[in-house]
Amino acid sequence: MTAKSPAGATSRKAQAARTETALKDAARKVFAEKGFLNAKISDISAAAGRASGSFYNHFPSKESILEALLTDWISEAGRSLAGHGDSHDLSDPEHLRWHVAVVWHMYKEHRPEIRALQEAAIVNEDFARRLAELQLAETRVLREHLHDMERNGVALPGAVDLVAAAMMALLNEFSRGWLITDAAPAGRVPDDDEAIDTLTAFVLHGIAGADKA
């Protein structure tokens, strides 16, 4: 029996990685155009330039490729949130603005996954739980920062977990309104800096102004 060539095995592994990436990119495109519920595996395969059978070599279902996209997104978000040094003071406008910008750009850059997850959560209990877990996880860094602020004598407007949840709900809903639903709640679409600056000022008043209420 002839031993397998290491070079050949490496080539096949690289080809498999390229196919998986192409399928993920295609899924994002199809989810953006059709939504999760209307997307078909044949749509994703065609957009990737692959046969439908190739899809099943990498993902057992439409749900599994969405889960893979979510895993990639969470990893990227974790790296982004860990990249702002040691400052934990959300009453510092510059630091708060950085956090706000991360959320805004996350919605802007990962619109297909976020929209697909919201649709999937309507009909799939596993994705509904996944969405709830993500929403709680989103507040983890905020809770850590708020705890540090409280220990340093900052008077918050309420309990840390509730303040973090209120902040994230505001950031999520504001971002979702323009970047996910295309609703343009104010009748126009703000540019990135205007949206981020407005959110920052609004949240900052709720935090830093708590002891003045």
Helix and strand layout, with pairings?
Layout: H1 6-34, H2 41-48, H3 52-56, H4 62-81, H5 93-109, H6 111-123, H7 125-138, H8 140-151, H9 160-179, H10 192-208
Helix pairs in contact: 1-2, 1-4, 1-6, 4-6, 5-9, 5-10, 6-7, 8-9
Describe this structure in words.
By secondary structure, the protein is an all-alpha fold. The protein has helices at 6-34, 41-48, 52-56, 62-81, 93-109, 111-123, 125-138, 140-151, 160-179, 192-208. Helix 1 packs across helix 2. It starts with 5 loop residues before the first helix and ends in a 5-residue tail after the last helix. 26% of the residues are buried.
Give a quick rundown of the structure.
The protein has 213 residues and is mainly α. It has helices at 6-34, 41-48, 52-56, 62-81, 93-109, 111-123, 125-138, 140-151, 160-179, 192-208.
Q: Mind summarizing the main beta sheet?
A: none
Structural class: mainly alpha
Extract low-pLDDT stretches. Answer: none
Estimate what percentage of residues fall within beta strands.
Answer: under 5%
- Tell how many strands the DSSP assignment holds: 0
Termini separation: 80 Å
Separate helix tally: 10
User: What radius of gyration results from the CA coordinates?
Assistant: 21 Å
Principal-axis shape equals elongated
Share of helix among residues?
A: over 70%
Summarize the helix and strand pattern as letters: HHHHHHHHHH
Mean pLDDT: 83
